[in-house]
Amino acid sequence: xxxxxxxxxxxxxxxxxxxxxxxxxxxxxxxxxxxxxxxxxxxxxxxxxxxxxxxxxxxxxxxxxxxxxxxxxxxxxxxxxxxxxxxxxxxxxxxxxxxxxxxxxxxxxxxxxxxxxxxxxxxxxxxxxxxxxxxxxxxxxxxxxxxxxxxxxxxxxxxxxxxxxxxxxxxxxxxxxxxxxxxxxxxxxxxxxxxxxxxxxxxxxxxxxxxxxxxxxxxxxxxxxxxxxxxxxxxxxxxxxxxxxxxxxxxxxxxxxxxxxxxxxxxxxxxxxxxxxxxxxxxxxxxxxxxxxxxxxxxxxxxxxxxxxxxxxxxxxxxxxxxxxxxxxxxxxxxxxxxxxxxxxxxxxxxxxxxxxxxxxxxxxxxxxxxxxxxxxxxxxxxxxxxxxxxxxxxx
Length: 396
Ligand SMILES: [Zn+2]
Fold this sequence. Notes:
Blueprint (H helix, E strand, L loop, with lengths): L2 H7 L3 H25 L12 E6 L7 H14 L4 E5 L10 E2 L6 H4 L1 H10 L5 E3 L3 H11 L5 E4 L12 E7 L28 E5 L13 E14 L6 E3 L7 E7 H10 L6 E7 L17 E3 L2 H4 L10 E10 L2 H14 L2 H6 L10 E3 L4 E4 L4 E6 L2 E2 L7 E2 L8
Parallel strand pairs: 1-5, 1-6, 2-4, 2-5, 6-7, 7-8, 10-11, 10-12, 12-13
Antiparallel strand pairs: 3-4, 8-9, 8-13, 14-15, 15-16, 16-17, 16-18
This protein binds zinc ion.
């Protein structure tokens, strides 16, 4: 257990002192939600659909694998997703894009990991104000047609079309069961009843009470893999590390848990720790006879600027019950029924406007002479799926 888990699993005099703050926080949130529901406060609507995917507790390790599952689902359906969010709790900066070249301090660990794993197939923007972030992203990437906000469960200023909440049921009754700042819960568990879907991880026995309307989908973590930092499409399994000589590099904050997690490997490990907050440079990665360097992902993502193909980090992909796919796509279908939304979609190639042909269920780019199909209510904005329009066919 690290310090935050210890803190959230106990009730000490400090927790009792913080408890009134939790109470005020939850009363404030409940009133706000009531006002938004009664339309006394209006949420800002972004032109394209917004999916909020967040966890009910802080420190939920399954949220990121769930997010990647959802992104892959959207992409395989022909959509062009983008990720927005604050990125990390104390981010007070203007909207910025997170890429492999981003400054680690400004970008935050999780957005950097996403930038590495999704490898420029899905823009990621972060900043203090999620609405500004969404607007800035869409200006830079008009081809994106669905936004995923991977935090902001409580940020009701941003209108959401779908809300998915990730819950880890194995968090022994959600730590000490208290709401932030005294406990790990972001809201009362009754909040789950307002979601469109709940994703649970960590055991089927203790399903949370989500009411009759909301469906629960189980997330299962897959076998641990190791991802190459320079080429994230390259992965290896733990058994492939047998009998290898591996150099482990980690900052002090992550070293203990990381080395513990590698105990099962049948490999010869050497361990090198760095002060927390250490700025990794090329110098830390001198050429030696070591073939493989293993780092916790939180440290590895800070080394994206270092061109060293020996750096790997562990990752567990997730598999979510397929019913969630239908829940998400059905919500999006309802949104894309609106011709106004189809009107603002642009061609992913030339970023120019498209002509909507209702009869053929196609979106046409005149300059590229391409017809993008609308399949089962979802616009498939992929060049390889588009029909190329023969010269004899008139485009009106
Ligand atoms: Zn075009």
